[in-house]
Design goal:
- The structure is a homodimer.
- The first copy, chain A, is an alpha+beta fold.
- Chain A has two domains: 188 residues, 60s Ribosomal Protein L30, Chain: A; 184 residues, PurM-like C-terminal domain (Phosphoribosyl-aminoimidazole Synthetase, Chain A, domain 2), CATH 3.90.650.10.
- Chain A has twelve helices and 13 strands.
- In chain A, the strands form three sheets. A six-stranded mixed sheet of chain A has the order 9-11-8-12-10-13. A five-stranded mixed sheet of chain A has the order 1-6-5-7-4.
- In chain A, helix 4 links the parallel strand 5 and strand 6.
- In chain A, helix 6 packs across helix 10.
- Chain A starts with a strand and ends with a strand.
- The interface between A and B is large, with 115 and 115 residues.
- Strand 4 of chain A pairs antiparallel with strand 3 of chain B, so a sheet runs across the interface.
């Protein structure tokens, strides 16, 4: 509805037509769509798109679609692909958006949206190139939209991809006043011979590494919100329960729960680029809905299990706090939440130390979770 | 939430975890997310994805992201790009989805979603490669989701692109019972030197061709629904008012209003491929929200007007019927609806007849709408 390709202005809404019909009768505006607010929102967000645009982004304002040069022959930023495979995925932020709305904090949910997509894509060895967002909402509040897109743009900057466009759809009959939904779409590229498909490569003895999450990330928020309501937790209160976690200590619960999903693109892409010939990574998994047991299994062949030692890392106190207040079963916790591990790598044993070192030097907290053993394609938490 | 890359099954939801927690307390299911229904929906829609997959689609079930080979060297389906530009866009179907819900007809709205995206992309000379859909909804009704994705798959088949994946997000707190929103993302490719950017190339004297729409397409449905309510029109009634239109005659109003958006990909892509060296097309526009005056202008340089003769085509009776019942001003009609013209081409005068012929032979109804003249970048309806 409010098309935003290449930070396009809504040029078509001010194309010399009268602002109001010259005789009474139904109009588009009267049927509930606020064109001026849409225009203003588009103006506000243009700079957020532009700051993610490198020289590979082509095209002008007002284009129907965003354009991105795949190969790039100029000396700076040179990129040339021999047999490029496009990798694409879409994901939303789920009901975390309800928490953002409830708290009136809109500038980080966009990073969650980017994270959910780009973290999925790097699992297959891809490097994110471009991103587009879709926002469905009740009514455009330009300043709020600007905050949302700022967050998307922040996420794109962290992931090193271009925010190529987006769409804002004002649908007052679908979304309640104040509500919105946010979905994203990412495209990346990987050389055919560098595609990672864990199913085939994982062998017994491979080492499983886990990268720390920043918190709940973007899954399980229906349950989080049920716990908050059930236990009458106060979102504006700083709880001591998670004071031992340096990332969460001293922050209000709502703020901690809105902590944006960590984006693992740069450490993972840089790690993969570092190995020109050798292939030390046999599989990876982004830990989303389904938790460790429901995502790490996606990297396993049918005759291999992932044996994960629950004592190999400390579950962050935030999760224990939620578990206690919701009286949630331990298995359910691991099935719904990341429990502190946001991303996993399955690594050839010979390379495990080197890979862990590289990731630590890239700023990640790395845990050796366990190893691959003969089995049935399952994740065994022991 | 219910991830559907590469028709992936929700393998992570049945990964050997107990179905229910072993002690009382909050669970993810109790917090409102129906995992079984999600599983069943994913099963039902797999075949719809697969039928759009050619040999360029890679990857297995359960992958985190869909994969598509850009170059393809095998003899059949050979494709090789010298300097490929990725073209990407996102769009939803707006409140047309409310009409589909109201009528309980869910199997064509997906084609609308594909059309809104791929028709945007071909404007820049691109050939659509892949598509992903996002459905946000109150609660997964597997058979209904299957209908929605069937429509998306139909659209992809018409557009010749692969439905590479999708996402179904169950968000009972955002969407009301029975409601859903549908958005799509498309990626295509065009050789750098074949990119069409009308802004630069359109010259006075260029001929403007219009391709017939199939009806209201996917814009202006807030106004359509306001008219239906205002005039107490009956969606299940066959009105004589549009009996002169062979496409709409004898059909109930609701059915006519749900007629899916025409997809212009094959005639346009085939037309462009036919000209290896010459570049007869100086600009194109997909007629969406904003109508002819608000979209054709996006193909114009700042010193050129498009002079469109309103008498060069007959506005389909459906639009006059809506106008009469809504007492809608004529300019407002042209600003909101396509008025019978769904896609426009600006063509070098020397090639106008040949281009129109080719499009007619490809099954399109072509109108010569007018021509480019010196001006201010506006569309002048005369």
């Amino acid at each position: 509805m409010f098309d935003r390709p290449n930070a396009a202005a809504l040029s078509h809404y001010d194309a010399g037509m009268p602002d109001a019909p010259t005789k009474p009768g139904l109009t588009y505006a009267a049927s509930g769509v606020d064109i001026d607010a849409g225009d203003r929102a588009v103006d506000l967000i243009q700079s957020h798109l532009r700051r993610t645009h490198g020289p590979r982004v082509l095209g002008k304002h007002g284009a129907f679609a965003g354009m991105f040069r795949l190969d790039y022959n100029e000396k700076l930023f040179q990129r040339n692909y021999k047999d490029p495979v496009l990798v694409a995925c879409t994901d939303g932020v789920g009901t975390k958006v309800k928490l953002a709305i409830q708290l009136g904090v809109h500038d980080t949910i966009g990073q969650d949206c980017v994270a959910m997509n780009v973290n999925d894509m790097i699992v297959q060895g891809a490097e994110p190139l471009l991103f587009l967002d879709y926002v469905g909402l009740h009514k455009v509040v330009p300043e709020q939209m600007e905050r949302v897109v700022k967050g998307v743009s922040d996420g794109c900057a962290i992931a090193g991809c271009a925010l190529l466009g987006g769409e804002t759809a004002e649908m007052p009959d679908v979304y309640a006043a104040g509500d919105y939904d946010l979905a994203g779409f990412a495209v990346g590229v990987v050389e055919l011979k560098k595609v990672i498909e864990g199913h085939e490569r994982v062998e017994p003895g491979d080492v499983i590494l886990g990268l720390a999450s920043s918190g709940v990330h973007s899954n399980g928020y229906s349950l989080v919100r049920a716990v908050v309501e059930h236990a009458k937790l106060k979102l504006d209160r700083v709880y001591d329960d998670y004071a031992d976690d340096p990332l969460h200590a001293g922050r209000a619960l709502g703020d901690v729960l809105l902590e944006p999903t960590r984006i693992y693109v740069k450490p993972i892409v840089s790690l993969l680029r570092g190995y020109k010939v050798k292939r030390p990574i046999s599989g990876m998994a982004h830990v989303t809905g389904g938790g460790l047991p429901g995502n790490l299994n996606r990297a396993l062949p049918p005759d291999i299990d992932a044996k994960v030692d629950r004592k190999s890392w400390d579950v962050p106190p935030l999760f224990r706090f939620l578990q206690r207040h919701g009286d949630i079963d331990e298995d359910e916790m691991f099935r719904v939440f990341n429990m502190g591990i946001g991303y996993t790598l399955i690594v050839r044993p010979h390379f495990a130390d080197a890979v862990a070192d590289k990731l630590r030097r890239a700023g990640q907290t790395v845990h050796v979770l366990g190893k691959a053993v003969r089995g049935k394609g399952r994740v065994r938490l022991v």
